[in-house]
Amino acid sequence: MLSNLLIILLYILAIYIVATNSSNLQKVATEPAPIVFFIIGMLIVFYSLFIGLRNFNKLNKKRSKMPEFANQCPDQWSKINNQCVNDFNIGGKCGSTNFDKYTKKQKCKWSKKCQSPWEGIDDIC
């Protein structure tokens, strides 16, 4: 953040120097100094944009992570009376289970053992 502020201040200083040294447009077009300041200024602007976009991408990566929410039951299972029930008999070798006191790692091991996919859980172990 401080480096970006310093770059902007240098850019403003360069514009000020160019503006005070040139009394008319013809003089600006013929002197090499304003062109050099213009090129330096543009490099500073592009560098600032690059740093800003890099920081923006880092921030977006942090924001785009999935929340720590995981389903209470395996995929396609329903919770009925504190029990996860395989209503549709989709995969799974195990029957109804109460997962209230299971840790995430225990849920993952259960998911692997019973061959029941569980989004956000079965990739932990």
User: How far apart are the first and last residues' alpha carbons, in Å?
Assistant: 40 Å
The share of residues in extended strands comes to under 5%
Using the alpha-carbon principal axes, give the shape: rod-shaped
Main sheet, how many strands, which sense, barrel? 2 strands, antiparallel
Number of strands: 2
In N-to-C order, the SSE pattern is: HHHEEH
- Tell me the domain tally: 2
Q: Rg to the nearest angstrom? A: 31 Å
* Low-pLDDT segments, ≥5 res: none
Give the % helix.
55-70%
Q: Helix/strand/pairing class, anyone?
A: mainly alpha
Whole-number average pLDDT? 77
Count helical runs: 4
Strand order of the largest sheet: 1-2
Architecture overview:
The protein is mainly alpha-helical and 125 residues long. The protein has two domains: 2-63; 68-125, no CATH class. Helix content is 55%, strand content 5%. It has four helices and two strands. α1 (2-21) packs antiparallel against α3.
What would a concise description of this structure say?
The chain is mostly helical and 125 residues long. It is built from four helices and two strands.
Q: Which tags fit this structure?
A:
single chain, rod-shaped, 125 residues, 2 domains, 4 helices, two-stranded antiparallel sheet, 2 strands, mainly alpha
SSE layout and pairing:
Elements: H1 2-21, H2 25-30, H3 32-63, E1 78-80, E2 83-85, H4 104-114
Antiparallel strand pairs: 1-2
Helix pairs in contact: 1-3
